[in-house]
Design brief:
Blueprint lengths: L34 E5 L7 H24 L4 H23 L3 E6 L4 E6 L5 E6 L5 E3 L10 E5 L2 E5 L5 H20 L1
Antiparallel strand pairs: 1-2, 2-3, 3-4, 5-6, 6-7
Helix pairs in contact: 1-2
């Protein structure tokens, strides 16, 4: 994740929600944006890599299946095909879950988090930045999270990010909140 000015910031992930306020109504930002990040889960294997991996797996499975068929163990051929199908379905599921996004926007009066699920449904949380508490992840624990809390409500953001990315996001958001509060 690269940190940049608010108008250029792009990040990568999505989080788990704890009980929070109901979604807010859609509205315009009041004043300039102090922080704007879109978080997406990392998917290191792109479409071309996927085709290459599946092609190699299919070829190896087919050749092995033919060898077993020639040795008289023809039922094994079907299991090689089943393996390829299961790997394909696992990749499809992984790519589907990778469409999750979280948008974090901070303006003069509101910190807004919008989590868009892979199916397109979205949920929105708003926090008043002056009362917001940001709990940074512990760098020594890989499973630690960024927690936003205010008035008894909590929200975990960036849970799908790598630990270093969560640290960078927390530092950048904390800095943006400090600048926004300072005026």
């Amino acid at each position: 994740m690269t940190l940049a000015p608010a108008d250029q910031l792009q990040a990568a992930p999505a989080p788990q929600a704890l009980p929070t306020e109901p979604p807010a109504t859609e509205g315009q930002a009041s004043g300039p944006l102090h922080f704007d990040a879109v978080l997406r889960p990392n998917r290191s294997l792109g479409p071309t890599g996927f085709v290459v991996v599946m092609g190699i797996l299919t070829l190896v499975s087919f050749v092995a299946g033919v060898v077993f068929t020639l040795m008289g163990a023809w039922p094994v051929f079907g299991f090689f095909g089943l393996d390829v199908a299961l790997v394909y379905l696992a990749f499809r599921r992984n790519y589907y879950s990778g469409r999750l996004t979280e948008t974090v926007r901070l303006d003069d009066t509101t910190l807004e988090i919008v989590r868009t699920q892979p199916d397109g449904s979205a949920r929105r949380w708003t926090f008043q930045p002056y009362w917001l508490r940001l709990t940074e992840p512990d760098p020594d624990r890989e499973d630690s999270q960024i927690i936003l809390s205010s008035h008894g409500r909590r929200l975990i953001i960036g849970s799908f990010l790598a630990p270093e990315e969560r640290q960078d996001l927390a530092r950048a958001l904390k800095l943006a909140l400090a600048r926004q509060r300072a005026g």
